[in-house]
Amino acid sequence: GNSVTQMEGPVTLSEEAFLTINCTYTATGYPSLFWYVQYPGEGLQLLLKATKADDKGSNKGFEATYRKETTSFHLEKGSVQVSDSAVYFCALSANTGGFKTIFGAGTRLFVKA
Amino acid sequence: GAVVSQHPSWVICKSGTSVKIECRSLDFQATTMFWYRQFPKQSLMLMATSNEGSKATYEQGVEKDKFLINHASLTLSTLTVTSAHPEDSSFYICSARRDRGPYNEQFFGPGTRLTVL
Fold first, then answer.
1. What is the pLDDT of residue A26?
2. Which chain A residues contact residue B109 at CB under 8 A?
3. Residue closest to B22 by CA, chosen among B66, B75, B86
4. In angstroms, what CA-CA distances link B82 with B13, B17, B24, B101?
C-alpha cells in the first residue's frame, strides 16, 4: 500500500539556520505530494504541494521538489524563524488509494531565538 | 475561500455519554469529507470517508457503531462518538474535498479536542 516516511524529530534549530526535513514515499500510480504544518493546538494547514515529478512547491520560504527517481519530497527552508516552530507532516494522495491522504508521522520543529 | 469549520472546538463529557462533532465547508460544496483522529504527538489516522447521501466508508479497525457519521448535506458532516469512554479522548479533525476542484486536494478543519472523564 501507499505510505510516507519522514525523519523523526524533534528537530531543534537556532533562528536563521537552514532546515531540511526528509520525506520519502511509496506509492503506485501517480501520487500528489504535500507538506502540511500544524501549530500548537490547531488543525492542519497546507504549506505546499507538488502534483507531478520535478515540480517544486514553495510557500513562505519553504520549498520541496518532487523527485520521482528517489521517491522523495524533502522540505527545506534557508533561514528559519521562531514562528516556524510547529509540527510538519509530509503526505501523499494517489488515485490508487482512492485519493485518500496518507500522512507521515510528523516532525516537530523547535526554533530557538 | 475553501474554509472548513468544526464545532465545537473542544468538549469535555462524562463517560457513557454521546458527543456530536460538526464539520462544515463554509464556502464550497463537498460531497466527500474525511474524519481523522490524532493522538498526542502522533500523526493523523484516517477513520472514515463520509459521502453525502450514502453510508460512510470506515477504515479497518474503526468501529462504525461507535463512531457514527452522517453526511446530510453537501456542506455538513457529523461525527457522533457514542457511549464515549476515556480512551476515546483525542483530537478529531475533519477535511473536505471540494466538488469543483482537484480531486486530490483536501481542506482541513481546525479540529475538535474531546476529553472524556
1. 94
2. 43
3. B75
4. 11, 7, 20, 34
Nearest-angstrom CA–CA distance, B79 and B67: 6
Q: What's the average model confidence in pLDDT over A71-79?
A: 97
Q: Looking at residue B103, what is its pLDDT?
A: 66
* DSSP conformation class of A97: G
pLDDT of residue B105: 79
How many angstroms separate the CA atoms of A91 and B85, rounded? 30
CA dist., res. B38 & res. B93, Å (int): 8
Q: Is B60 on the interface with A (CB under 8 A)?
A: no
Dihedral sign for Cα atoms in the order B48, A102, B11, B2: negative
pLDDT: which is higher, A40 or A74: A74
Low-confidence residues in chain B, pLDDT < 50: none
- Cell numbers given for B97: 474535498
User: Is pLDDT of A55 > 90?
Assistant: yes
For range A51-62, the mean pLDDT: 95
**Contact yes or no for A44 and B6 at CB 8 A:** no
- Cell numbers placing A110: 523547535
Q: What are phi and psi of A84, to 5 degrees?
A: -85, -5
B97 touches chain A (CB under 8 A): yes
The answer to whether B34 faces chain A, any CB pair under 8 Å, is: yes
Residue in A with minimal Cα distance to B109: A43
